[in-house]
Amino acid sequence: DIQLTQSPSSLSASVGDRVTVSCQASQDIGGKLNWYQQKPGKAPRLLIYDAANLQAGVPSRFSGSGSGTSYVLSISSLQPEDIATYYCQQCDDFPYTFGQGTKLEI
Amino acid sequence: QVQLLQSGPTVKRPGASVKISCETSGYSFSNHFIQWVRQAPGQGLEWMGLINPTGAGTAYDSTIYAHKFKGRISMTRDMSRNTVYMELSSLRSDDTAVYFCARGEVRFDPWGQGTMVTVSS
């Protein structure tokens, strides 16, 4: 199975900060990497697909980059409503797997 | 708009089975895969498997399950109701979790609201 390792596991930042979350895959996943945001008690929400494509309706302060085994989610200017846990997910091979999550706090 | 509506919370005894429904609306049911993901209390997301509502024109079978659940998981669909079902048998306490369905083959959007399954004696 492909392992995804996110770093950091938790992150404290201030409103307006630029924030980055990393996701490292145990093998090349060819850019087939998605990012989700999950707020407490809610279902996850797709933010970024195929490593760098912004899902419709997602604010442009969110962006994704990366290739091969290394990927990054960036938030250009942190807003209070961005408080959530963020997960990466690979869809290159079965079983699809998720990273362990990064909890973002202000 | 596209919606996935799941059945309500349930409590089961160890060893029992649970069947969760995911009723879809707002799109062509046959054109999109449905995935199932679960989340134990305070834990991360765990992929369980997928179902292709038609099973046609794909490179693989109509269902694919994570190895961890093989032998005790089943995903089915009722095309007349635009609904997908996920049944998990031989429940254990560590199956206590919120179970989500989500639309999509390789990117999951949108998601159902989640169904809390509690396994307790």
- Main beta-sheet strand count, sense and barrel state of chain B: 6 strands, mixed
User: Structural class of the helix and strand makeup of chain A?
Assistant: mainly beta
How would you state the average pLDDT of chain A, rounded? Answer: 97
Query: What average pLDDT do the residues of chain B reach?
Result: 92
Number of strands of chain A: 11
Beta-strand percentage range of chain B? 35-45%
Task: List the chains of the largest interface with their residue counts.
Answer: A-B, 22 and 21 residues
Shape descriptor of chain B: globular
Share of helical residues of chain B: under 10%
**Alpha-carbon distance between the termini of chain B?**
40 Å
Query: Gap between N and C termini of chain A, in Å?
Result: 34 Å
Describe the secondary-structure layout.
The complex is a heterodimer of chains A (106) and B (121).
Chain A: E1 4-7, E2 10-12, E3 19-25, E4 33-38, E5 45-49, E6 53-54, E7 62-67, E8 70-75, E9 84-90, E10 97-98, E11 102-105
Parallel strand pairs in A: 2-11
Antiparallel strand pairs in A: 1-3, 3-8, 4-5, 4-9, 5-6, 7-8, 9-10, 9-11
Chain B: E1 3-6, E2 10-12, E3 18-25, E4 34-39, E5 46-51, E6 63-65, E7 73-78, E8 83-88, E9 97-103, E10 115-119
Parallel strand pairs in B: 2-10
Antiparallel strand pairs in B: 1-3, 3-8, 4-5, 4-9, 5-6, 7-8, 9-10
Description of the structure:
The complex is a heterodimer of chains A (106) and B (121). In chain A, a hairpin with a 3-residue loop joins strand 5 (45-49) and strand 6. Chain A has strands spanning 4-7, 10-12, 19-25, 33-38, 45-49, 53-54, 62-67, 70-75, 84-90, 97-98, 102-105. In chain A, strands 2, 4, 5, 6, 9, 10 and 11 form a seven-stranded mixed beta sheet that branches. In chain A, strands 1-3-8-7 form a four-stranded antiparallel beta sheet, with no helix packed on it. Chain A is 0% helix and 49% strand. Chain A is globular. Chain A contains no helices and eleven strands. With 106 residues, chain A is mostly beta strands. Chain B is an all-beta fold. Helices cover 0% and strands 45% of the residues of chain B. Chain B is built from no helices and ten strands. Chain B has strands at residues 3-6, 10-12, 18-25, 34-39, 46-51, 63-65, 73-78, 83-88, 97-103, 115-119. In chain B, the strands form two sheets. Chain B has a six-stranded mixed beta sheet, with no helix packed on it. The interface between A and B is medium-sized, with 22 and 21 residues.
